[in-house]
Design a protein that fits this description.
Layout: H1 49-59, H2 64-78, E1 87-91, H3 97-105, E2 109-114, H4 117-126, E3 132-136, E4 150-156, H5 165-178, E5 179-190, E6 202-204, E7 216-221, E8 230-235, H6 239-249, E9 251-257, E10 280-287
Parallel strand pairs: 1-2, 1-4, 2-3, 4-5
Antiparallel strand pairs: 5-10, 6-7, 7-8, 9-10
C-alpha cells in the first residue's frame, strides 16, 4: 500500500462508544457536500465558522441503533476481527466513529477517508489512534492507495447522502480498484423500506409517504439530553439501486442483509422499533 504522510494522531482511541459518511451518515457525521473547504473558520478567507458548528452538532447525534444493529452487521459482512482482514478502508469516514469502532473490535489498520477537511479535523481531534490513517478524498479519488491494497472496505451512510447515481457508481468503482481480489465491500444505509418509521434516536422520511428513486428524504437525528433534533437531507435509493451499482462496479456474490435488534435491549427500552423493523440496509459484495 502507498500512503502519503500520516495525518492521524498517535494516542489511543477514545472509546468505540463515543457519541456516528463524505458524505454521511444517518446516524453520524455531516455530509461533505454541506461543509466548506478548509481547516479554519475564518469568514474573511471564505470559511464560515457555522460549518464547524454544523460538523460538531452532527457528531453529537446519539447513534445507539448504529452501535447495536448497524455496525455489527457490517463488521460481520466484512469479516472484521479475522486474520484475513488487516487493512480496512472506511470510505466517507466523517468524524471517525466507525473507524474508532473497527480498531476497538480488531487489530486491523484503518484508512479513514473523507472529502471534508472539517470532518477529518474533528476525527483527528476526538478519535486519534495509531492504527487510523485519516486521508482526504480528492475529486472522488483515493490517490494515496494502490490498486488492490486493502482487505475490506465500507461506506456507512454515504450513498444516501449522494443525490446522483453517477456519484454512487464513481464511489463503487474507486473502492473496487483499491480492494484486493477476494476482499469484500459493504454499504450501510438507512433501510429504504423503513422510511417514516420512528426508531430510538432517528427518523428518516415522513410517516406514510412513498418516496421515489433519488428523492430527497428528511432525516431527524436525536441528541443526547434532548433538545431540537438535528436535521439532514438524505436521498431515497431502493435496494435494487445498491445491487445495480455494486454489480456494475464488478462486485459479485452480492448479499442483502436487513438486521434487526436480536433481542429487546435495556438501552433501547421495552419495545424498540428496531426489534420489529429493520432500521438499516447492508449490501455487500466480493471483488473477484
Amino acid at each position: 500500500m502507498t500512503l502519503t504522510t500520516p495525518t492521524s494522531g498517535t494516542s489511543g482511541a477514545r472509546g468505540a462508544d463515543e457519541a456516528g459518511t463524505g458524505a454521511v451518515r444517518a446516524g453520524a457525521d455531516a455530509p461533505a457536500a454541506d461543509l466548506a473547504d478548509g481547516p479554519t473558520g475564518n469568514p474573511a478567507d471564505g470559511h464560515d465558522p457555522r460549518d464547524d458548528a454544523h460538523v460538531r452538532a452532527h457528531d453529537s447525534y446519539d447513534d445507539l441503533p448504529e452501535r447495536l444493529v448497524g455496525y455489527p452487521a457490517v463488521f460481520h459482512a466484512l469479516g472484521i476481527g479475522s486474520s484475513a482482514v488487516r487493512t480496512v478502508l472506511d470510505h466517507g469516514c466523517g468524524s471517525g466513529r466507525a473507524a474508532a469502532r473497527i480498531v476497538a473490535a480488531s487489530d486491523a489498520r484503518v484508512v479513514a477517508a473523507d472529502a471534508s477537511p472539517r470532518a477529518l479535523a474533528l476525527a483527528r481531534e476526538r478519535r486519534p489512534h495509531p492504527r487510523i490513517d485519516l486521508r482526504r478524498i480528492e475529486d472522488g479519488r483515493l490517490p494515496f492507495l494502490d490498486d488492490g491494497s486493502v482487505d475490506a472496505a465500507m461506506s456507512c451512510f454515504v450513498f444516501a447522502a449522494a443525490g446522483e447515481t453517477g456519484t454512487l457508481h464513481d464511489i463503487a468503482a474507486e473502492v473496487h480498484r483499491v480492494l484486493r481480489p477476494g476482499g469484500r465491500y459493504a454499504v450501510l444505509d438507512v433501510n429504504p423500506r423503513s422510511a417514516g418509521i420512528r426508531f430510538s434516536t432517528f427518523r428518516s422520511g415522513e410517516p406514510g409517504r412513498v418516496y421515489t428513486k433519488g428523492e430527497p428524504r428528511r432525516t431527524l437525528l436525536d441528541r443526547p439530553g434532548g433538545g431540537a433534533p438535528l436535521e439532514r437531507s438524505d436521498h431515497h435509493w431502493p435496494c435494487q439501486t445498491y445491487l445495480d451499482v455494486l454489480g456494475k462496479a464488478g462486485f459479485t456474490d452480492l448479499d442483502v442483509h436487513e438486521p434487526v435488534l436480536p433481542r429487546h435491549s435495556a438501552l433501547l427500552g421495552n419495545d424498540p422499533a428496531e426489534a420489529d423493523h429493520p432500521p438499516f440496509l447492508v449490501v455487500s459484495g466480493t471483488k473477484r
